[in-house]
Amino acid sequence: MSGPGADGSQGPGVESGWLRLAELVQATTLRLAELEGELGECRARTAELEEQLQRFLQGQETPSELLDRIRRLEEENRDLKERIAEARAGVERMLARVRFLQENA
Hints:
Blueprint: H1 12-57, H2 63-104
């Protein structure tokens, strides 16, 4: 291990070590700033989720009742889609008849 030179200067190894240390400190500072930003985003998201949970818990329905209602609504939606498809087919048949009558009139 060498000490300072006769003129009080440090060797090239020490200077490069200080430069590397400065680079690492700067990189660490930047990463810390990034992490603080991410932490702020996480805290905001947590607050949002807690608020949504409170609104959900204040509702009149339990989770199982809500799930049952969703299932009923999905079933009703399927039924309505079927009825619309049937009605659309009926309209297409009537339009075909009208076209036929117009062509043969």
